[in-house]
Amino acid sequence: MFLLKIDSIAVPAASCSELRSGKFYRFTKEIQQNTILNRATIELLGAELPTAGTELIGRNWVSAVESIFRISLFIVVSLFVPLLFIPGLNKLAADKFTLPGEFKKHFLHQFEDLTHKKNTKEDNEKFKQKLVAVEGEAAVKQYLGPNEEKHESRVQEYKSKLAKAKSDVMQKDILYVGLLTYMVPWVQNWFTKNILGVVGFTGEETYLDESQKDESVQLHEKTKWIKFPLGFVSTIFGSNWYSDKVYKAVTSKNEAIGKGKFMNFIKHNLKQFDYYKEIYANKLNLAGSYLFGADFGVLLACRSLNELCERILRLAVFWPTLFLGVEWVNYKLGERSDRLNGTKLVDHASPKELGIRQIRSLEELENALQEAESKQDKEQAEVISKSIKGQIKNYWTSIMLDSAVMSIGLTSANIVGTKIRVEKFGIY
Questions:
Q1: Same structural domain for residues 296 and 332?
Q2: Distance (Å, rounded) from C-alpha 11 to C-alpha 23?
Q3: Are the C-beta atoms of 393 and 11 separated by less than 8 Å?
Q4: CB 3.0 to 4.6 Å from 46: which of 106, 345, 365, 402, for a disulfide?
Q5: Amino acid 180: pLDDT
Q6: How far, in Å, CA of 116 to CA of 112, rounded?
Q7: 361: closest CA among 38, 9, 133?
Q8: Predicted local confidence at residue 283, as pLDDT
């Protein structure tokens, strides 16, 4: 029944050309293309704003304000602050590994083009053509030199240096973002205590008297000076370990990688480590920052046992949602639309990403529509027009469903769970 209701969501009755020129269409397209905007939209609309609303209704205004403060910091330091320093990291890495000065857009090239399996004469020639497309023919000729017999070795040398440089940027990005996100829960605790005037976990505020509140936070207050430095250790070592694994997955032969699940996972998902337009972190870069930074802060900064229980449950739901979540729901909605409505949303030709079959992008659908229109194929144009509208509808529907599960459902479960633990078992 629920899926039937989803199909009834209204889509503006407009021609595809009007849709493409509309502000809402361009807004949706830009969000989908830009990994940072996409993640921020999912976090805000699919998780944190509904979470704050649920906290306000189910608990108290302090919990809601604390939630908004926390996510505001998380989004700023994990998604937008890096945009300020990643260009600098790119420049430092280019100098460190002596990338040729003739080229200005080194980091537009993807890890997939730098793998060991693509270190063949044919693939190196293809990469050379990509260099021409990105940097211009004059710059490529200047770097490669007049002797064509040396071109392949020069390309191989450049690819080897670029793999090291990209890994170096990723390591420092994960390190800095990891440290920033690690600090967020600690800053939140300070904000709650000194600005909001609440001692301890705000989720227990309604159920405990003053003496119980002081008692609930005693262990945290005694041990926070020991707990606090642990996150820095995990972030420093974790960022080096993580980036080294990616570098080895790129440059090693398949037999050297063996059957290790983690290394093979990296090998098959290298696209998720590339930076969109050289500066926007992709999903698995963000995952490294969260895993070695934010998650340790979220757990170590807990002020009571109930807060720890809630955060463990939230992380248990967050990680599948990060990797699958909206994308998986979007794929399932697209698959259903293709079957029932005759759209062409699921891209069966492209490889799966993180185990999920991909939905055709709005840009890809636009190009297909232009081709159909140029051939005056009205039937195909109509199918693609319907697909474009369906793609937009399914994207926002996926975020709404994520909100229902990740925000309203999970937060409600935490509220009920803490209430039961405190009132029935006296745990705080």
A1: no
A2: 14
A3: yes
A4: 402
A5: 96
A6: 9
A7: 38
A8: 87
For residue 156, the model assigns a pLDDT of: 94
Give the whole-angstrom CA distance, residue 134 versus residue 104.
9
**Could you tell me the end-to-end alpha-carbon distance of the chain, in angstroms, rounded to an integer?**
41
What letter represents residue 183's amino acid? Answer: M
Q: What is the pLDDT of residue 18?
A: 58
What is the structure's pLDDT at 427? Answer: 87
Decide which of 288, 323, 358 is a domain's last residue: 323
Sorted by sequence, the CB contacts under 8 Å of residue 265 that are 6+ apart come out as none
Domain boundary residue among 286, 301, 323? 323
Q: Are the CB atoms for 347 and 378 separated by under 8 Å? A: no
The answer to whether 110 and 142 have CB atoms below 8 angstroms apart is no
Rounded to whole angstroms, how far apart are CA atoms 291 and 68?
A: 22
The C-alpha torsion from 404 through 410 and 414 to 416, rounded to 10°, is 50
- Other beta carbons within 10 Å of 50: 21
Dist. CA 278–CA 85, nearest whole Å: 12
**Residue from 327, 334, 325 nearest 404 by CA:** 325
- Could you give the C-alpha distances from 426 to 63, 212, 283, 368, 421, in angstroms and in order? 21, 10, 40, 62, 6
CA distance 22 to 27: 9
How many Å apart are CA 393 and CA 390, to the nearest integer? 5
Q: Contact 408/50 with Cβ under 8 angstroms? A: yes
Q: How many residues does the chain have?
A: 428
Q: Is residue 51 part of a domain?
A: no
* 191 and 265 fall within a common domain: yes
182 in the same domain as 279: yes
DSSP symbols for 186-208: HHHHHHHHHTS---S-GGGTTT-
Nearest 10 degrees: CA dihedral of 155, 161, 166, 171? Answer: 160
Which helix (H) or strand (E) element contains residue 101? Answer: none
Which residue segment(s) compose the domain that 292 sits in?
A: 58-105+166-323
Contact 362/32 with Cβ under 8 angstroms?
yes
Q: What is the mean pLDDT of each run of 10 residues along the chain (428 residues)?
A: 37 50 84 84 85 94 94 91 95 96 94 92 93 94 90 94 97 97 97 94 90 90 94 94 95 83 91 91 92 95 96 91 83 93 90 84 89 88 91 92 86 95 89
Distances (CA, A) of 164 to 92, 114, 169: 12, 10, 9
Same domain, 189 and 302: yes
Query: Read out DSSP for 311-347?
Result: HHHHHHHHHHHHHTHHHHHHHHHHHHHHHHH----B-
φ and ψ at 402, to 5 degrees?
-60, -40
